[in-house]
From TrEMBL:
<feature type="domain" description="Enoyl reductase (ER)">
    <location>
        <begin position="16"/>
        <end position="343"/>
    </location>
</feature>
<dbReference type="InterPro" id="IPR036291">
    <property type="entry name" value="NAD(P)-bd_dom_sf"/>
</dbReference>
<dbReference type="InterPro" id="IPR051397">
    <property type="entry name" value="Zn-ADH-like_protein"/>
</dbReference>
<protein>
    <submittedName>
        <fullName>NADPH:quinone reductase-like Zn-dependent oxidoreductase</fullName>
    </submittedName>
</protein>
<dbReference type="InterPro" id="IPR020843">
    <property type="entry name" value="ER"/>
</dbReference>
<dbReference type="Pfam" id="PF08240">
    <property type="entry name" value="ADH_N"/>
</dbReference>
<dbReference type="GO" id="GO:0016491">
    <property type="term" value="F:oxidoreductase activity"/>
</dbReference>
<dbReference type="InterPro" id="IPR013154">
    <property type="entry name" value="ADH-like_N"/>
</dbReference>
<dbReference type="Pfam" id="PF13602">
    <property type="entry name" value="ADH_zinc_N_2"/>
</dbReference>
<dbReference type="InterPro" id="IPR011032">
    <property type="entry name" value="GroES-like_sf"/>
</dbReference>
Length: 346
């Protein structure tokens, strides 16, 4: 059921390669949902590492500038277009958007909405949308982590990393987590043994904790350090690579570091030593939209259920009003936070 409104909405525009202060607040008429769409009043949207890369034009397949960033959102359906179940209006839902979430309102395909359990705070839920899906699918869909195994999580204080630590602990695994020393107490509090990721003896420190190697490594860092991640694997271990964070500030192509990583993983997989390497891409399989959505709904539903029953602790680093987006980006990039900086409706 469509409802006309003259209300103005606000969105954050990334105009090009800019410092956080270069983000632009744009006001426009409230959009009207087309067939199959819902207009969501956004209550929370996250600042992910992807936006750090996008504002440097370093994200693998970002759209052309200018665009509205925002990889995921949680909000309440304000209006729906033709052919959409009208009872969705008023429901709190989450969506994985890649772009568009940093706004007071966002148009989303209604089929992409995942219900948020009643009583769950929108910012809390937001911390588990892209982070929860990524962590869940890598842990259970690829590495198939089992009770009694030991896993290594890089960036264990980050959005994905802190979620991986919690989900791996819930799966019964022992977790070693790399992080800066300032985050070690927080990593310990999540149930992992912290190791300094800048230590020149990182590999030796991990080996001292896991002399037979680790059953899985989750590596978003890429670059030369990926070699240690591979070498730390136990004989039948799995390396899940899912990013190239170490190349964020390097000049040049946004694609080359990822392509180099693919080549290395392919080479390792050809070696007959029982180890497996995989690159995780949250958008893989998107061409089969029905199957992709079914998997996303199932996996995010599983994560939200753990949040609702208290098994997962949301790591909200800060709640920052949308209008103060530059502060939010600076904070997310400061290296001082545990968990996720969340933009909230003012
Ligand atoms: N492939 C996929 O489908 C997919 C999906 C989602 C996310 N990702 C990737 O997942 C990663 C984490 O995303 P996020 O949103 O969780 O980020 P985040 O919250 O900003 O956390 C980033 C983490 O990485 C650490 N870090 C930053 N630069 C590093 C470096 N050069 N070497 C080692 N560690 C470094 C940070 O440590 P400090 O706090 O000490 O700086 C922090 O622990 C990103 O690389 C992102 O691209 C991939």
């Amino acid at each position: 059921m469509s409802r006309q409104s003259t209300e103005r909405v606000v969105e954050v525009v990334l105009p090009g390669v800019v410092e956080p202060d270069g983000l632009v607040l744009r006001h426009r008429d409230r959009p009207v949902p087309a067939r199959g769409q819902a207009l969501v009043r956004v209550e929370a949207s996250g600042v992910s590492f992807a936006e750090q890369q996008m504002r440097r034009a370093k994200y693998y397949d970002q759209p052309a500038f200018p665009f509205v960033p925002g990889y995921d959102l949680v909000g309440t359906v304000a209006e729906v277009g033709p052919d959409v179940d009208a009872t969705l209006v008023g429901r709190r839902c989450a969506a994985l958007t890649k772009v568009g979430g940093w706004a007071s309102h966002a148009l989303v395909d209604a089929a992409d909405l995942v219900p948020v359990p009643d009583g769950v705070d929108p910012a809390d839920a937001e911390t588990f949308v892209v982070n929860g899906l990524t962590a869940w699918q890598m842990l259970h869909g690829i590495a198939e982590v089992c009770p009694g195994q030991t896993v290594l999580v890089h960036g264990a204080n980050g959005g994905v990393g802190s979620t991986l630590v919690q989900l791996a602990r819930l799966a019964g695994a022992r977790v070693i987590g790399t992080a800066s020393p300032r985050h070690h107490d927080a990593v310990r509090d999540l149930g992992a043994t912290p190791v300094d990721y800048r230590s020149p003896d990182l590999a030796a420190e991990v080996r001292a904790l896991a002399p037979n190697g680790v059953d899985a490594v989750f590596d978003h860092v890429g670059g030369p350090g990926i070699v240690d991640s591979y070498r730390l694997l136990a004989p039948r271990g799995t390396l899940v690579a899912y990013g190239t964070a170490s190349t964020r500030d390097q000049r040049g192509s946004s694609r080359l570091p990822v392509l180099k990583l693919f080549a290395r993983l392919l080479w390792w997989n050809a070696l007959p030593n029982g180890r497996t390497t995989r690159f995780f891409n949250i958008w893989a399989g998107r061409r089969n939209a029905a199957r992709f959505r079914a998997r996303l709904t199932r996996d995010l539903g599983a994560v939200f259920a753990l949040l609702a029953d208290g098994s997962l602790r949301p790591q909200v680093a800060a709640r920052v009003p949308l209008e103060r987006v530059a502060d939010a980006v600076r904070l997310a990039e400061s290296g001082t936070v545990t968990g996720k900086v969340v933009l909230v409706a003012s």
